[in-house]
Amino acid sequence: MITGKITIIGAGNMGGSIMAGLLDGGMCPPDITISDASQSQLEELQKEWPGISVCSDNTQACKGADIIILAVKPFVIKSVIEEIRGSLDYGKQTIVSIAAGIGLRDLEELFSDSRGTLPAIFHIIPNTAVKVGAGMSFVTCSNAGAEAREKVLEIFGTFGKTMIVDEKLLDAGMALSSCGIAYIFRYIRAAVEAGVELGFKPAEAQRIISQTMTGAVTLLEKSGGHPEQEIDKVTTAGGLTIKGLNTMEEAGFSAAVIKGIKASVKKD
């Protein structure tokens, strides 16, 4: 079980998802503080998760926190950091930013004080599946010792899988995982539409496709092999599956997936 105090600044989709993941992972509600300018948003979260602390003052919210998670949009992160920087204890508090496009060097410049001192800083890109304990989070860090790294990995590991990567791969990781969730949902939607055309009710088709997706992922994880090996197990010469696969490829299926993922990588 995670111990210590965590403050989340930003009660939007990702901030709320991280909070939900922490609570589902067994963290005590009083050990979590979430701060946001929207009082109505905070009230909704407090109704859903009784016991958590809410605050509209970011500086106040950071007091006593061991880890501070900045779950705000990239265009406001500078003002948030300027607001809280003077009240932080760099020797005791760890900073985690999940703002896409604001790299470690940017964060170092924003947090650096007059003496050039820095806290332990993490830049992490999670996806929204952290809310249901099935997230994928890419981790980079600066000025972080072994204890801080272990703690942050423990936190994000409670609601999914983590991968430490070179910062230059963060944008690619976001395309595969964060954007990737939308791409997978689009496939599910298309498959459901096909199921309806074939005679199933929409809810029935969605249940079938969702379970099929779950089964495919489980097979792949259990085997540890290449997806093509699993495809080979369900295709036969002249069979229906290979005909369907070939029709998809003729329509540009694989090329469309590759182009879509590459298009969602931030360009410098």
Automatic annotation (TrEMBL):
Annotated Pyrroline-5-carboxylate reductase dimerisation domain residues: 167-267
Keywords of the record: Amino-acid biosynthesis, Cytoplasm, NADP, Oxidoreductase, Proline biosynthesis
SUPFAM superfamilies, A to Z: 6-phosphogluconate dehydrogenase C-terminal domain-like, NAD(P)-binding Rossmann-fold domains
One GO term describing the cellular component: cytoplasm
Known pathway: Amino-acid biosynthesis; L-proline biosynthesis; L-proline from L-glutamate 5-semialdehyde: step 1/1
Binding site for NADP(+): I9, G10, A11, G12, N13, M14, A71, V72, K73, P74
Top-level enzyme category: oxidoreductase
Reaction it catalyzes: L-proline + NAD(+) = (S)-1-pyrroline-5-carboxylate + NADH + 2 H(+); L-proline + NADP(+) = (S)-1-pyrroline-5-carboxylate + NADPH + 2 H(+)
Subcellular localization: Cytoplasm
Transmembrane segments: none
InterPro entries for this protein: 6-PGluconate_DH-like_C_sf, NAD(P)-bd_dom_sf, P5C_Rdtase_cat_N, P5CR_dimer, Pyrroline-COOH_reductase
Pyrroline-5-carboxylate reductase catalytic N-terminal domain ranges (all copies): 5-101
EC number of this enzyme: 1.5.1.2
Molecular function via GO: pyrroline-5-carboxylate reductase activity
Family in the record: Belongs to the pyrroline-5-carboxylate reductase family.
HAMAP family per the UniProt record, alphabetical: P5C_reductase
Protein name per UniProt: Pyrroline-5-carboxylate reductase
Gene name of the record: proC
